[in-house]
Amino acid sequence: MLKNDKGEPTASIFSVAYTRSDVKDLSRRPVAFAYNGGPGSSSMWLNIGAFGPRRVLTPNAESAPPPPYKIEDNANSLLDKTDLVFIDPVGTGYSHAVGKAQDKDFWGIDSDVREFAQFINTYVNRNNRWNSPKFLIGESYGTFRSAALGNDLQKNNGMVLNGIVLISTVLDLGTLSFNPGDDMPYIFYLPSYAATAWYNKVLDNRPQDLNAFLADARKFASTEYAAALMKGTKLTDPEKTEVARKLSRFTGLSEDYLKRANLRVNLPQFTAELQRSRGLITGRLDARFSGPETDLLAEYAQYDPEETAVIGPFTAAFNNYVREELKFFDDDARKYEGLSFEVNRQWDWKHRSGDHYGFPGSPNVEGDLLDAIVANPHLQVQVENGLFDLATPFFATEYTMDHIQLPENLRSNIHLEYYDAGHMIYLREDSLSKLTANIGSMIEGATK
Questions:
Q1: How many CB atoms are closer than 10 A to CB 248?
Q2: Which of 19, 74, 358, 374 fits a disulfide with 55 by CB distance 3.0 to 4.6 angstroms?
Q3: Cα dihedral across residues 36, 41, 42, 48: positive or negative
Q4: Is residue 305 classed as helix, strand or coil in its secondary structure?
Q5: For residue range 81-107, what is the model confidence (pLDDT) as tens digits?
Q6: Assigned superfamily of 2-174+310-446
Q7: Partners of 166 in the beta sheet?
């Protein structure tokens, strides 16, 4: 239960904690707080999809059949390395406002941080975990939350962290926003477009080595392509033709389409166009997924085949799991909210992190992560990237991490890992195994 300054209850927070009961010295046992993003998502995805003791099975890169769905023991759980606390923010799961408070009071960058900080403080106090090694594990918007939350916990709560795991990362929302006059997102997305075209086999003379191909895509994006976009309307027709030719080689889109798009194809245009000739649209969260397109004249993709493929199995499996195995029963009138679009639509995006010159821009928590590492030079940050993730493209994440102005001796605190997977890296079992091994090694190293 969260409370305000007067001690009045404001919210009931639903969480699922998995802890070892045979640990005599809790200072030797790490505890990790895990959550998803959205904003508006519960933590069921990381719970029964990735790190909890049980895992729902879904087909690899294709739609799941109707129920029943199978839940089995998770051989890749993180419980051999750390206790786990999965947190559902207000408006998701069973978490909701109480008393005079309203759900929307918690729907914003800074109010969300205060909500999580109070919950974590309460959990640590009640369970005597102040001296335990502590980690934050966030996915998607959960990575944005983790940067601000980690800084807040250390700066305002005296709670020093051992590590932060960022899964499918965005710290600067401007890198994902195709705003008029801003060419940077087109540059950031190009290598992910290339990975997507490679996976879906739409490239002429498709190279065998994906990593080498992506290295070339990064180079082209940051040099010739960036230079062409910087010229704006001063780019000549012969120059545009030459860049379109090279851009087609990386994206699989036709030179004519690229020229008509003025070399600038945003994400929903790309996912609609890439496999249009096959009657398919391409997944945003995971480009390995494809689905039928009913309007072959549509400029933008009308849905995400990955999202529609997994939401049913996860929702059904978790509702069954929480009742049958965890034995939690809530009021029958209150459903478990796995993913709330209402929260997302009403989110307050205002956030101020440090001093800056100029006018408010896209929400950005790079400064929060910088402050957290500078204040705690032992803090380790591991960044997990899916090569086929079109929601948070890896080249944008690389740019962000390269531009956090850390002193040279602290730059090695940030570690980047890569997976042949999409946004939800754990959907692919081989990638999940690699992910948990990498996080487990990070936890071990950060607790020594």
A1: 19
A2: 74
A3: negative
A4: helix
A5: 999 999 999 999 999 999 999 999 999
A6: Alpha/Beta hydrolase fold, catalytic domain (3.40.50.1820)
A7: 138, 383
